[in-house]
UniProtKB/TrEMBL annotation:
Gene3D superfamilies: Calponin-like domain
Coiled-coil ranges (or none): none
Residue ranges of domain Calponin-homology (CH) in the record: 6-114
One GO term (biological process): regulation of cytoskeleton organization
Biased composition (Polar residues): 117-127
Superkingdom per UniProt: Eukaryota
Organism: Batrachochytrium dendrobatidis (strain JAM81 / FGSC 10211)
Gene Ontology terms, MF aspect: microtubule binding
GO cellular component assignments: axoneme
PROSITE patterns: CH (PS50021)
Xref: InterPro entries: CH_2, CH_dom, CH_dom_sf, Spermatogenesis_Ciliary_MAP
Region of interest (Disordered), residue spans: 117-139
Protein name: Calponin-homology (CH) domain-containing protein
Length: 215
């Protein structure tokens, strides 16, 4: 075990202070002596590696050793790390400097583990970049402010109205509808007269046909 420099220790304390633990931080040697706080540190960064039900707060040396042995076998090993019984014995006896050493080593292993997991998650098959980009765009749209959605709705309404106007303007009846009101009235009169004349001609034709059949 090598001694840590002052900068390393202060950096370690700052790191621990940013982690929420179930018990107040008073004296690091005593706070971590039963292994529960150490399990909580790993749980904070990598929840799936730790089941806190396996670790009970303890005052007895035997229970403290059990907690640390469980950590060493079930948690540290999955991080590619392990410690020995001598160091565990020093930790449960509250000897200064040993907890700091374990936490310093553990911090490096946690950082390395998280870096590997991040690299795996970022590695993607060819062609998935565009999918992720589209997903990101949809996510950004979903997170847009109500004002953005309102602007989009107004834009869509304006566009639909413009398209509708274009269709109406191209409709054959649009020319008549766009005429002067007096011209529209005159057109209606012409249409009515033409319709009446057509009915009259048709009626005369039917009369002639009937007369011819009678002859």
């Amino acid at each position: 075990m090598h001694e840590l420099g002052e900068e390393d220790i202060q950096s370690l304390y700052t790191w621990i202070d940013n982690i929420h633990l179930s018990r107040p931080k008073k004296n690091i040697s005593r706070d971590f002596s039963d292994g529960v706080a150490c399990a909580e540190v790993v749980k904070y960064f990598i929840p799936k590696l730790v089941d806190l039900h396996n670790f009970s707060p303890a005052n007895s040396v035997s229970q403290k050793i059990y907690n640390w042995t469980t950590l060493n076998q079930k948690v540290f090993r999955r991080l590619g790390y392990s410690t020995n019984d001598e160091i565990i014995q020093c930790i449960v006896s509250n000897k200064p400097g040993y907890v700091e050493y374990i936490l310093y080593e553990l911090r490096q292993k946690i950082d390395r583990y998280l870096s590997k997991q991040s690299a795996k998650s970022n590695a993607s098959p060819t062609g998935s970049i565009s999918h992720e980009s589209n997903h990101s765009e949809h996510s950004q749209l979903a997170k847009a402010s109500p004002f953005t959605h309102m602007a989009n709705s107004l834009y869509c309404s304006t566009t639909e109205s413009a398209q509708h106007s274009h269709v109406v303007s191209n409709h054959p009846l649009s020319a008549t509808q766009s005429m002067d009101p007096q011209e529209n009235v005159q057109n209606q009169i012409w249409t009515s007269q033409g319709s009446n004349m057509s009915h009259k001609i048709a009626a005369e034709g039917n009369t002639t046909t009937v007369s011819g059949q009678g002859e």
